[in-house]
Amino acid sequence: ILLSNMGGPQPSHLKQATLETLGYVCEETSAELLAQDQVNAILTVVVQGMQTTEGGSDVMLAAARALYNALDFAESNFENNTERNYIMRVICEATLSPDARVRQAAFECLVSISSTYYEKLAPYMQDLFAITSKAVKEDEEPVALQAIEFWSSLCDEEIAIQEECGTNISGELGRTYFQFTKQALPALVRLLLETLSQQEEDQDQDGGAWNLSMAGGTCLGLVARTVGDDIIPLVIPYVQENISKPEWRLREAATYAFGSILEGPSLEQLTPLVNVAISFMLNAMKDKNSHVKDTTAWTLSRIFEFLHSPTTKNPVITPANLPVILEVLLESMEDTPNVAEKVCGAIYFLAQGYDSGGTTSPLSPFFQGIVQALFLTADREDAADSSVRASAYETLNEVVRCCTEDTVTIVMQLVPVIIQKLNETLEMQVVTPDDREQQSEVQALLCGVLQVIIQKLGASELTKCVMLQYADQLMILFLRVLACRSATVHEEAMLAIGALAYATGVEFRKYMPELYRYLELGLQNFEEYQ
């Protein structure tokens, strides 16, 4: 019935509605439910709809969106050179449509094809690079974003193939690796670097922001993971040229470029560059521009995540620079919320890099100062309006988890502090839904901290006795938290209770009669927690 609507001189609104319906049908239907002749018929009317001049761009848009949903069914058609060439030609022509919505939908089809039909792309890559480059440089942002997404999707696919096949890239043991990214590398990197300086003024304050600069940096990071060391000589000159420019956009773009390539290339290539860059980055944390500081803190966190390990031959963090690094980071935690949040991330990975157990750690002399700074950050007046509170507590969890024997006494002292803070949330005046949301958030975070502390102290017989002293207090608090109706808090409280049960062993049975009521209630209302 639907397909018959597309034959003959039908009204354009009927064709548009029919194509939209076909799109929904394809989206909700499994490939095995359609016979090949049905797939052929759908693809024929959809592709013809993308070429029609009757009914204007609304019909073409509906057709392009329907094709996006129909591509999963087109495996046999993509095996046929003639049919595949026809489909690709129509999509590429649609990327030049006068209507930006059609161009965007056409690029969305190419993004899907880049992963679903990667092995069939080789004959089209030269044209696809030209089309995507033109869109990134000249088109409206929604269209340009999809053009960048094509390369991000292609990188994801090539990263997956490398992980699947290891060093064997001939296709003998799996899929063929065409190295499309590597072939386009110099021109692709130049294209992506040009996008980095197209930031928006308020992008750091908007956690959900997504623009050309962010998309370009994300794609650059994927390119680095795909090609490894080959990206370094293409990006480092850009960084060196722009990192000290008076224009903040160029300084931020250079920092973003450097941070984006820290995963993928070898430690041998990156370590000398990072050793030079760290002191520069620490100075940049005092930059006049908040965007530059935000991206610098993010880059430092990437350095600590991917290159920081005391066991490496040439560690990037040494006894000489660690005090300076921590001084700058702790001072920067008083900066704007977006900068403070990124700094928390940097401290998180800094602590994680020293997670080797033992009696002491290079972080031990700074442990108390780090903990105090994280508490102050979590208690900031503006913490409720950003994600800085959650970042501070998540970092505190990692710092506690990585503590060594010489700092465990400080962790013991945290127990009554967290108990007091959790008590205060239970006494909060809850008037509005915002109050309830804030109470639930803080309770969940504090239960998370207590879970980590209980696990840390419960792991050693020497410290477990301290944990047992607080067991009754903790269990009373957790039960009071369970009495508050919030699925998120209940989950964190249950995890903390589980840690306490493991630490206390058979002694935990005295809490079971009271706890059982909440367990039974949770099992009866399981849908609320899904």
Which helices and strands occur, and which strands form pairs?
Blueprint: H1 12-28, H2 36-51, H3 57-70, H4 75-79, H5 81-94, H6 100-116, H7 125-138, H8 141-165, H9 180-183, H10 185-195, H11 212-227, H12 232-242, H13 248-260, H14 267-284, H15 290-307, H16 322-332, H17 337-353, H18 367-378, H19 388-401, H20 408-426, H21 433-458, H22 461-469, H23 471-483, H24 487-504, H25 512-524
If you had to describe this structure to a student in words, what would you say it looks like?
The protein is an all-alpha fold. It is globular. Helices cover 69% and strands 0% of the residues. Helix 1 (12-28) packs parallel to helix 3, helix 3 packs parallel to helix 6 and helix 17 runs parallel beside helix 19.
Strand content: under 5%
What's the pLDDT, averaged over the residues?
89
- The separation of the N and C termini measures 39 Å
Sheet having the most strands: none
Class based on secondary structure composition and strand pairing: mainly alpha
Helix-strand string: HHHHHHHHHHHHHHHHHHHHHHHHH
Number of strands: 0
Features:
530 residues; mainly alpha; 0% strand
Task: Summarize this entry quickly.
This protein is mainly alpha-helical and about 525 residues long. About 70% of the residues lie in helices and about 0% in strands.
